[in-house]
Amino acid sequence: MKSIVQPTKKQRRKIVLEILQQQNRIEDYPYLIESLSPPQDITTLAPVGSGKNISIGIIGGGIAGLSAAFELRKLGFDITIFEAEKKRIGGRIYTHYFDRHKKYYGELGAMRIPISHEIVWHYIDLLGLKTTPFIQSTPADLFYILHRHACNDSEGQSVMENIYPAFDLTLREQKTPWIQLQNNAINPLLRKLSPKVRKEIIEIKPQYHPEIIKLDQLSFRNIFEKAGLSLGAISMLGNLSPLIGDFFYTSSIELYSEIYTLDFFSLYRIQGGSANLPLAFYRSFFDSNVKKYYPNIPPHLLGTIHLKNGHCVEQIQQKIPCGPVTLSSKNIENHSIHQQNFDYIICTIPFSTLRNIQLCPAFSSEKMQAIQELSYENSFKSAQFYKERFWEKEDIICGRKLGGSSATDYPLTSLWYPSDHYQYLNSPYAPPKEPGVLLSTYNFTLDATRLGNLPYNQRIFKINRQVEQLHALPKGYIDNILLDYVDINWNNYPWSLGGFAYYRPGQKNTFSWIAAQPEYQNKIFFAGEHVSGKHAWIQGALKTGIQAANHIAKDFIVKK
Ligand SMILES: Cc1cc2nc3c(=O)[nH]c(=O)nc-3n(C[C@H](O)[C@H](O)[C@H](O)COP(=O)(O)OP(=O)(O)OC[C@H]3O[C@@H](n4cnc5c(N)ncnc54)[C@H](O)[C@@H]3O)c2cc1C
Questions:
Q1: Do the beta carbons of residue 26 and residue 494 sit within 8 Å?
Q2: Are the C-beta atoms of residues 106 and 242 closer than 8 Å to each other?
Q3: CB 529 less than 6 A from any atom of ligand 1
Q4: What is the share, in percent, of the chain residues with pLDDT greater than 70?
Q5: Does the C-beta of 313 come closer than 6 Å to ligand 1?
Q6: Do 529 and 479 belong together in one domain?
Q7: Ligand 1 binding pocket includes 69 (Cβ within 6 Å)
Q8: What is the CATH number of the domain that holds 387?
Q9: Per the database record, which ranges form the Amine oxidase domain (predicted)?
């Protein structure tokens, strides 16, 4: 399938349809389109301008909070966003720029957008952002497992020849390519669900179909065990596919959620960095040319947005039932405390940080339990800025890498090559020689903590040696060409205290509905990836941001 630089809605739908056809599950198409498209527009729920003089506080200037503000503005509300970071919005969309011209950057948070994530595309189009393909894998990707190298040829031959002998596999496993071993284990459980039931994988409902509850009880690892794979095969597959191996003890619903919505097919990146998405929202709030964003709304009917950045919310209080909600926030620079009353609140901060906020009175006991128990997984990312791209040289092991990723059983787990030379992928011309940024570590859970918690110098040393061994380069090679380095251990990031919400077995059934319900008699609504059906994706955060705005519109119009 040929990649299009900036796919239109029609082209996106065609690609989704083609992928589903290839996967023999065309019946999922209408459900996918329905679930992944933007919810009803807020102006169909209440008249434009009708929210004047109603105040709304949004806790968190991540993508969920920004999208909620963008939508609420259409009705004329008076909106205040509280963002703990002083110099940055966007939360877990976090691009680090290595140079003044912002040409070279590493994505410490979100980096790719699947073709099917229609809500993200809706805002990309609306805000006029540019995209280019994100190359997910190529035959030049390599594996380095138990000190053995293999290349990513489409037949899986190299892995069978070089990696299989290191594992204790059954005769049948030895003869089956690894992708097939993986698919044979994963796909039947999805296929056996009817399309209507499958859709529940990404839905938030008070009650789920018994088949979904069963699936939610299983961990990723259980899926492989149920398929009869040997211990050796499970370990090998976990290393070949770190996105599976790192999450062996997570609810399999998370795995099926990504398979169901084609999250690893036909991916894109935002030109100039993912941070351009939150930045575009920010610009829209303060741009005098509002017609660009709201062509059908008279400017005087639009709401206003105040951004209180560097203000960390420390307390949420409702003094009288059904009354206004008071937010107490601390200025992180001078530590002064401010209090402000609001008619409505949208709380978009992760439950991991909400746990440290004082709630007066407490939320419902079920919600408090969800806040306490909903599981978050760690992720660690390091980005390295090199004066030359050793991975694009002709003689590099498995061939030059113009995108894609490599995997290893070393703690760095996976490493991602930049896609900015993707146009040379099938070209006879070599890409120009220039500096480049390698995402030298992208790992999760245990390895994220084990590598990410090492002291700074030790961490860089370990990563450099692992990058060299992965690419069969001599020791010390990296040190001579490395210009700069940055990393993030998301568990240690104070404003998320974790990478993303990811259910443990049984948690979708127990907590997904209650986590998303309003509190304080419909005065406080919740948004963010953690209360969505698409954890760990911008799509989920955006959908809940729009939904929370819509809930307020519905509630206030009834009470008006
Ligand atoms: C390593 C990593 C890789 C990812 N890769 C992808 C990807 O490739 N594609 C994709 O689509 N998604 C990806 N995601 C997921 C995506 O980044 C998130 O789903 C999304 O950004 C979450 O947005 P949010 O608004 O729900 O939360 P956040 O972005 O966390 O926003 C919450 C905001 O609240 C602020 N805050 C927290 N506490 C307080 C407080 N007390 N007071 C005031 N403000 C506070 C925070 O500073 C933050 O700005 C990735 C996430 C991670 C961590």
A1: no
A2: no
A3: yes
A4: 99
A5: yes
A6: no
A7: no
A8: 3.90.660.10
A9: 63-552
- On whether both 188 and 235 belong to a single domain, the answer is yes
Does one domain contain both 367 and 444?
Answer: no
Same domain membership, residue 215 and residue 154: no
* For the CA of 85, the nearest atom of ligand 1: 47
What tens digit of pLDDT does each residue of 93-115 get?
999 999 999 999 999 999 999 99
Q: Is the CB of 61 under 6 A from ligand 1?
A: yes
Alpha-carbon distance of 438 to 551, in angstroms, equals 42
Residue ending a domain, among 232, 264, 296, is 264
Q: Whose CA is nearest to atom 49 of ligand 1?
A: 91
Query: φ, ψ for residue 267 (rounded to 5)?
Result: -100, 155
Ligand 1 centroid from CA 91, angstroms: 4
Q: Which CATH number goes with the domain that contains 331?
A: 3.50.50.60
Kindly state whether residue 34 falls inside one of the protein's structural domains: no
| Residue 440 and residue 454 in one domain | yes
Residue-wise pLDDT for 420-445, tens only, equals 998 888 888 888 899 999 999 999 99
**What is the CA(93)–ligand 1 centre distance, in A?**
6
Estimate to the nearest angstrom the gap between the alpha carbon of 411 and the chain centroid: 21
Give the pLDDT of residue 2. 59
Sequence length of the chain is 560
What's the total number of domains in the chain?
A: 3
Q: How far is the CA of 530 from the centre of ligand 1 (A)?
A: 9
What is the residue with the minimal CA distance to atom 36 of ligand 1? Answer: 60
- CA dihedral angle for residue 532, residue 538, residue 541, residue 544, rounded to 10 degrees: -80
Q: Is the peptide bond before 361 cis (omega within 30 degrees of 0)?
A: yes
Q: How large is the ipTM?
A: 1.00
For residue 68 and ligand 1, the question of a CB distance below 6 A is answered with: no
Atom of ligand 1 nearest to the CA of 89: 49
Question: What integer is the mean pLDDT of 82-86?
Answer: 98
Parent domain of 255: 167-264
Residue whose CA is at the smallest distance from ligand 1 atom 6: 110
What was the pLDDT predicted at 8?
96
Q: What residue's CA is closest to ligand 1, atom 29?
A: 91
CATH code for the domain in which residue 223 is found: 1.10.405
The confidence band for 1, taking pLDDT boundaries of 50, 70 and 90, is low
Q: State whether 156 and 171 are in the same domain.
A: no
Distance 60 CA to ligand 1 centre (A): 9
User: Ligand 1 atom closest to Cα of 353?
Assistant: 38
Residues 328 and 420 in one domain: no
In a domain, 248, yes or no: yes
Place of tokens 């503005």: 73
Q: Which residues contact 100 (CB under 8 A, 6 or more apart)?
A: none
302 lines ligand 1 (CB under 6 A): no
Q: What is the DSSP string of 75-104?
A: GT-EEEEEES-SS--BTT--EEE-STTS-S
